[in-house]
Design brief:
The protein is 42% helix and 17% strand. The protein has 719 residues and is α+β, with helices and mostly antiparallel strands. The protein folds into five domains: 154 residues, no CATH class; 98 residues, Immunoglobulin-like (Sandwich), CATH 2.60.40.10; 117 residues, Immunoglobulins (Immunoglobulin-like); 99 residues, no CATH class; 80 residues, no CATH class. A hairpin with a 6-residue loop joins strand 15 and strand 16.
């Protein structure tokens, strides 16, 4: 029966396809169960038995959601019709009885029955199964690695890295305690400005805030006569007995500086214990807006939004804006200073503030042409102050844009502003006289105001060098018309551009000052900058020499601009050629004497370098003499002083060095690790060696080469 043969082939393919889909779904459920069980095992060891229930749960969910396993024989027939065109979409005829078909359908059925045995098995039947097998292998590999992860981390010492990432401290070497000490306790009371509560610990190594109080309580196993602490090898602190049996000892100390200490129990000294001090940092001010220099043009709103972020490690107690308004010009300039509050309450121990303040320039009383200089000052809970940079906001003066002074009058190289330097000197001297009678804050404020005056004056002088321009300094159009009146220059584009182009914004193109005057004015600006720097840093006494020099140079420029006519002819002493010429008198000519004293430079690190060499000898097992041992003891003192300032870096080296000194007469008993530790510390103490290539260092000689070069240069200039 041909129909039975075709139906049998289609049914066998349907069973294979259905079993392949069922197996692929089972593999996917098993892969999901393995992956989830491995994750549970990472956090809860021993949870691998969850694979079976998870497999059943995922399997049931997958079989309910995905109906691909419900494949029937008609589904396979329809698939064959779409995959093999030679069947002419007649595969369903093989599934029908021959008696129910007409003549044409019987002929087509016979044709299909002949083609079906020759068809290859479709690859789509096993496509899902292959993908599921790959997913299962990947899940099995990943789950195996995930379950082995704790052992891998343990073998490769990644556990310490994980603890470091979580903020935990590294495991340190256990402290060596004197055997007579039965029990001890340290109570650390942080200062009030930190806002932290007291804490206790059972180790001698301490890390405290600056200004914290440490209370020690030591209990001994037997009665002792005396217990004391030795701080940094020179300071002693005795403990007081708290009971009659003299087994309980107490003391306290205010900690301000880092270092190390030891316990002295009836002459028996313990190892070195580190003292680390956490310093309180000053507040940090970050101004986000406005820019350091802001100009508000005509038509723009005369308001500026000030945004700033204040941060501190323990909290900020106060912050405000110090604003100074400068109005007027020349000797009529006026300054008005005021404090502007942010409007926020600084209380508690909040470590960060994001503040905003809208500066309304009209409410502050500013007019066009005025300038506002402000800075932010913040104070933390430890009364540490920080001041930001000075920011400037100016309102453009539209009236100056329409002035015709530069077109009518010629340039005055002696403006009235030059007299302002003298006024700054007078006020600086008055401030120095009143320094002992005013408060420190008022003194600093006046110094800063004088610095602002000096800055404004320096900026105005810079206008004559082309740094800034407020008004026209000539009539370029008139000059251009005069120079281009010749008909020959009608098409000369370069000359037209040169005549009508404004070059006053370039310092090198300014042509209304002579080169000598220009150089002297630049030097004057440098002196003003030096005076301003010292006024801003509250050093008015150091600013006076620079201010006097600037004033003298300004007066000299004024004198150079004047023309003098001699009232009488110059009188020159008559020459005496007969008396002096060809006489050969050399009595008044003496040999020059150049006497200089040179001190031999002593290397301050010579002892450290010698100690490094001696340690290398000890490493080789060579004994040392008395002089060499003395050098090592001197180096030990230097290392102890360094450890008092940086105990976390140099304290292990001090301990190792003391072990070396104790066995210096027996080099074979010295540990190589101790020598290596001390050598590393000495290398850190030594300054860095200059890298080659570098300029050759001149020896401390008479400097004949430099003197010869200077005289030669001076001679060439005179020629």
């Amino acid at each position: 029966m041909p129909e039975a043969n075709g139906k049998y082939i289609i049914s066998s393919w349907q069973k294979k396809w259905k079993s392949s889909n069922i197996l692929s779904l089972a593999f996917l459920a098993l892969a999901a169960a393995l992956f989830l069980s491995a994750i549970f095992h990472l956090f809860f060891p021993g949870s691998l038995w969850l694979v079976i229930p998870l497999f059943l749960i995922f399997g049931a969910a997958v079989f309910l959601i995905n109906p691909s396993w419900k494949i029937t024989v008609p589904d396979v027939a329809r698939f064959l019709n779409t995959s093999f065109p030679e069947l002419e979409e007649s595969t369903e005829l093989s599934l029908k009885p021959t008696d129910s078909l007409n003549f044409l359908e019987r002929l087509q059925q016979q044709k299909v029955e002949q083609i079906l045995p020759q068809l290859p098995q479709p690859k789509e039947f096993y496509k899902r199964l292959k993908v599921a097998v790959l997913i299962l292998l990947a899940a099995f590999t990943f789950s195996f690695l995930l379950m082995r992860l704790p052992l891998i981390l343990k073998n490769n010492h990644f556990t310490s890295i994980k603890e470091a990432l979580n903020g935990t401290e590294k495991q340190q070497k256990p402290e060596i305690i004197l055997p007579e000490i039965d029990h001890f306790n340290l109570k650390i009371t942080p200062p009030v400005y930190t806002g932290k509560s007291s804490r206790e610990q059972e180790k001698f190594t301490i890390s405290v805030e600056d200004g914290a109080i440490v209370n020690w309580e030591i209990s001994t196993s037997k009665s002792v006569k005396q217990v004391s602490f030795i701080f940094n090898d020179h300071e002693r602190l005795s403990l007081k007995a708290a009971n009659t049996q003299r087994t309980l000892w107490k003391t306290s100390k205010l900690i301000h500086s880092p270092g190390f200490y030891q316990v002295n129990l009836d002459g028996k000294i313990s190892e070195l214990y580190q003292i680390e001090v956490i310093k309180d940092l000053a507040p940090v001010i970050h101004i986000q807006s406005p820019k350091p220099s802001t100009v508000i043009d005509f038509g723009e709103p005369q308001k500026t939004l000030l945004k700033t972020v204040l941060t501190d490690d323990y909290g900020i107690s106060e912050a405000y804006i110090n604003a100074t308004i400068a109005s007027g010009t020349g000797e009529a300039v006026k300054f008005k200073e005021q404090k502007i509050a942010f409007g926020s309450a600084f209380s508690g121990h909040q470590t960060q503030y994001q503040l905003q303040k809208l500066l309304d320039l009209k409410q502050l009383g500013m007019q066009p042409g005025d300038e506002l200089y402000f800075y932010i000052k913040a104070t933390d809970n430890h009364q540490q102050e920080t001041r930001s940079e000075v920011y400037m906001i100016s309102i453009a003066d539209t009236a100056k844009l329409m002035q015709m002074d530069g077109m009518v009058n010629s340039l005055d190289v002696k403006p009235e502003l030059f007299r302002s330097e003298r006024q700054i000197i007078i006020e600086t001297e008055q401030l120095l006289k009143a320094k002992d009678t005013i408060k420190a804050e008022a003194f600093k404020t006046k110094c800063n105001n004088l610095g602002i005056d000096q800055k404004l004056l320096r900026l105005r002088y810079g206008k004559f060098l082309g740094e800034e321009q407020e008004s026209n300094l000539g009539d370029p159009e008139a000059e251009g018309e005069a120079s281009l009146s010749d008909p020959k220059d009608f098409s000369n584009a370069a000359k037209i551009i040169d005549a009508y182009t404004d070059k006053h914004d370039k310092a090198e193109d300014v042509g209304y000052l002579e080169p000598e005057v220009k150089n002297q004015l630049k030097a004057t600006l440098n002196e003003m900058w030096s005076a301003e720097l010292r006024l801003r840093t509250y050093k008015p006494q150091e600013a006076l020499p620079f201010a006097y020099k600037a004033l003298r140079m300004l007066k000299d420029m004024q004198q150079k601009s004047r023309a003098y006519v001699a009232k009488s002819s110059a009188k020159i002493a008559p020459l005496k050629p007969v008396e002096k010429r060809l006489t050969g008198d050399l009595t008044k000519i003496i040999d020059p004497i150049n006497q200089q004293d040179f001190n031999k430079k002593i290397d301050p690190n010579l002892a450290l370098r010698q100690a490094a060499n001696l340690l290398h000898q000890l490493k080789n097992g060579t004994g040392l003499g008395t002089g060499s041992q003395q050098i090592l003891r001197q180096t030990n003192l230097q290392l102890s002083s360094k450890a008092a300032a940086q105990p976390s870096v140099y304290l292990p080296a001090v301990t190792a060095f003391r072990k070396i000194l104790a066995e210096v007469n027996h080099p074979k008993n010295i540990s190589q690790q101790d020598i290596l530790t001390v050598e590393k510390a000495i290398q850190k103490m030594l300054p860095a060696v200059a890298k080659l290539p570098q300029p050759a260092q001149t020896n401390p000689d008479f400097g004949l080469a430099n003197t010869y070069f200077q005289n030669l240069t001076r001679t060439n200039r005179s020629k």
